[in-house]
Write a structure and sequence with these properties.
With 775 residues, this protein is of the alpha+beta class. 43% of the residues lie in helices and 21% in strands.
């Protein structure tokens, strides 16, 4: 950076203005990125009968779940919901059928389910498209959004489809049962239902929260094809290949996972905002966002029509790189081009940097110092982010994945990324100059872009879009090397805005998607975007002290104030409560009974601890569970224990064959048998159905135990056939569970704070006994 007599070269004074302008532009981009993540309001006025109406769907939703009753698979309440759905489909002119079945998942969870199916025959009935959702809920809540909103959207689409011309291909409506029990309805459909044999594509609606846009977050292997359809047919698409890539690495599953495994193409939609309501009583009609329901229909309806009237035979297995532009358009290109684009930008930026060296716009020393900015920024941000997150987790503000008021923490980690990026750029800027910082930053971006494009193309646009902007504008800058002229300004500002365009939507959804574990990642992502401003910061001369002080001090001050706020605001609230389940546990062998409390935070609320003198330190109740729980003695109730009766037993060689009957003698809806880690059980069949061998990851979830569970236990019980190696005796645990506590536990329900709620299966009454097998 040139100086004259200790004064700032007057040609360099625009640098501060450019930096301030760019920061202001980032704020504008942040606002429009946030706006693009807001679902549309239901359309006002009367919507034509052949179109989807969120208002009509909302009325259906109220009819289905307005009473607030949970309706898990196998319950009487679920039967009532099923009858409502059948009646509405009949009213719309369909001939719905109930297709029953029995299935098990890879976790050993089994159930009898009752799927609802209906169809519109196409002009060419050989191929079919399925529109799917699930109607069961968890036992803890009514499931108004998960998946009541999906059911309401499908039913409203079903009504509108009857007003459309006959499609080319048949459309099957699948409202399945048992999703919460292990995707069992979808498994019955793909494995046992004759209607599935012609299905070529599926659109699935689900939820993991009560509001937010309806994301297309998963597709089949014909990803490029379905993304193209989405871009051409959906007016407000929300989809990006980062979400799709990350989701494939996660252990989460939906019904679409089953369809995908069966070779069916298509798209999976879900909203994820207000995850604090997910699988709790707060997933109710009042908390279900009407805008999300509108977005569900505005995504699924046109996509189903496009699939039903398109070519379902010549579908190429290929992936795309794609992202939405402020929730209005989808930019996309084939994933196979990602490495080529990355290499071209790296070569261009490399040539431009070499030219700047040749014409002495920067020196080798400038460039060498500049190469430190990017790795230092990312590394320091990551280390500090993890340290701060661990401190907040241990000291109280972030004890669980999602807290009631996450905004202070999100601001703090975002400000951390901004602060580290600015401080690093200013600290090294006097050694790099504008041109050195530009070359050093964009060489790093381009190199990382090549690596990412080669390994995971779906993530590549985060790097390739800014790098393309830098490479193209860098041609003008290298040619003119006129810092601080218009070419230099364009080469500095355009890539920053490109990075914001692709990066800020990810910043906005990262916590919502992954929770507090992603806060350090949020800081890194913000810092990554801010590294693109390094040339602008480097151009600000040292004598501009007040500006430099402000650039350093403001983000640090914001971070510290936000961290303070994170300690002040409550961790939980009535609208974002802690997940806390009770159990009444009776050990039928010893006659010992206990009240058990399982708080998600690992800390028992004082009101509950004092209500029954619970122990102060948590311990594990069951050997297969790692959940932190607190216990206190409970009255022994006269409840019959479950039974595990050996019906047949034989030995061949070193293998002992068993057939046993698992039964709940007290009529509990769910029963299970658990084998210890060293049992060596194999070849398990439940009700004659082979059960997939549990993977090491699944067994790790249960501390190595083998779990076999039926969540719709018939009165006569279920038969389980299995093999054990001949050898030492095996002691198995047998358990049954019913929803809710016995009347004696009413005092605990009263003691539960307003900022605590049951979740998933909710409060349970559990009876266990042990049975010794002698193989």
């Amino acid at each position: 950076m040139a100086r004259t007599g200790g004064r700032v070269d007057p040609r360099r004074t625009p640098a501060a203005g450019r930096a301030i302008f760019t920061l202001a532009a980032l704020i504008v981009f942040f606002f429009f990125s946030w706006l693009g993540l807001q679902p549309p309001a239901p359309r006002a006025g009367e919507v034509p009968a052949n179109q989807f109406s969120g208002t009509r769907a909302r009325a259906i939703l109220q009819q289905l779940v307005g009473n607030g009753a949970p309706h898990p698979t196998g319950s009487t309440a679920n039967d009532v919901v099923r009858e409502h759905i059948m009646a509405l489909l009949t009213q719309y002119g369909y001939a719905p059928e109930i297709h029953p079945g029995f299935s098990c998942d890879e976790y050993g969870s089994c159930a009898y389910v009752n799927n609802i199916v209906a169809r519109i025959d196409g002009r060419e009935p050989d191929d079919a498209v399925v529109l799917a959702c699930h109607y069961d809920s968890v036992a803890a809540g009514p499931g108004a959004t998960d998946d009541g909103a999906g059911v309401a959207a499908v039913l409203e689409i079903a009504r509108a489809l009857k007003q459309q011309p006959q499609p080319l291909h048949s459309i099957i409506l699948l409202v399945d049962d048992g999703e919460e029990a292990g995707l069992l309805g979808a498994r019955v459909f793909t494995d046992q239902d004759s209607w599935e044999k012609n299905v070529r594509a599926a659109v699935n609606l689900d939820a993991r929260g009560t509001s937010g846009v309806s994301w297309m977050y998963e597709t089949g292997t014909a990803n490029e094809w379905i993304v193209g359809l989405l871009a051409r047919t959906v007016p407000r698409p929300s989809a990006n290949s980062v979400t799709y890539t990350v989701y494939k690495l996660m252990p989460n599953d939906t019904d679409f996972t089953v369809f995908k495994s069966a070779g069916i193409q298509g798209a999976n939609f879900a909203n994820i905002a207000e995850v604090v309501h997910y699988h709790t009583p707060l997933d109710n009609f009042d908390n279900s966002d009407p805008r999300t329901l509108e977005d569900d229909g505005m995504n699924a309806f046109p996509l189903v029509l496009a699939l039903a009237n398109g070519n379902l035979q010549s579908v190429a297995v290929s992936e795309a790189v794609y992202f939405e532009l402020f929730g209005r358009r989808v930019a996309r290109w084939p994933a196979r081009l990602a490495p080529l684009v990355a290499w071209i930008t790296l070569i261009l930026i490399g040539f431009e940097s070499a030219w700047l060296l040749r014409v002495k716009a920067m020196s080798a020393a400038n460039f060498g110092w500049a190469l430190l900015i990017w790795p230092l920024t990312v590394l320091v941000t990551g280390i500090l982010g993890e340290i701060i997150r661990d401190i907040l987790r241990v000291s109280g503000p972030l004890p669980v994945l999602w807290v009631a008021y996450p905004l202070p923490a999100k601001i703090a980690f975002g400000a951390l990324g901004v602060a580290v990026a600015i401080i690093t750029a200013l600290a090294l800027g006097h050694r790099t100059g504008f041109c050195g910082a530009w070359a050093g930053i964009w060489i790093w971006w381009a190199v990382i872009g090549v690596l990412v494009a080669s390994v995971s193309p779906g993530l590549s646009y985060v790097f390739s879009v800014p790098c393309v902007a830098a490479a193209l504008t860098g041609i003008l800058h290298a040619w003119r090397h006129d810092e601080p002229g218009w070419a230099a300004s364009l080469s500095a500002i355009a890539p920053v805005l490109s990075a914001a365009l692709v990066g800020l939507p990810l910043v906005l959804v990262l916590y919502t998607a992954l929770g507090t574990v992603a806060l350090a990642g949020l800081a890194i992502l913000v810092a990554l975007i801010m590294t693109t401003m390094a040339p602008l910061f480097a151009a600000i001369e040292e004598p501009a002290g007040l500006l430099r002080l402000s650039l350093r001090g403001i983000p640090v001050g914001v971070m510290l104030l936000a961290l303070l706020a994170a300690y002040i605001v409550p961790v939980f609230s009535a609208q974002a409560p802690e997940r806390l389940n009770y159990k009444y546990w009776l050990d039928a062998d010893s006659g010992k009974a206990e009240w058990v409390v399982e708080p998600d935070s690992g800390k028992i609320p004082d009101a509950i601890r004092l209500a029954a003198n619970f122990q102060r330190k948590p311990r594990d109740v069951f050997p297969w569970s790692a959940a932190a729980s607190y216990q206190t003695p409970a009255p022994k109730l006269d409840l019959a224990a479950p039974t595990f009766t050996i019906l047949q037993s034989s030995v061949t060689g070193d293998t002992h064959y068993y057939t046993a009957l698992l039964r709940s003698e007290r009529g509990a809806p769910a029963s299970s048998v658990l084998f210890p880690p060293a049992a060596g059980i194999n070849s398990v069949r439940i009700e004659g159905l082979p059960v997939e061998p549990e993977t090491p990851a699944v067994r790790k979830y249960f501390n190595g135990w083998w779990l076999y569970d039926c969540v719709t236990m018939p009165a006569q019980g279920v038969e389980i056939a299995f093999r054990l190696p001949v050898g030492k005796p095996v002691e198995v645990w047998v358990a049954d569970r019913s929803y809710g506590l016995p009347a004696e536990g009413a005092f605990l329900l009263k003691a539960r704070p307003l900022a605590a709620t049951p979740s998933d299966e909710g409060d349970l009454t559990v009876i266990t006994r042990r049975v010794e097998l002698l193989p």
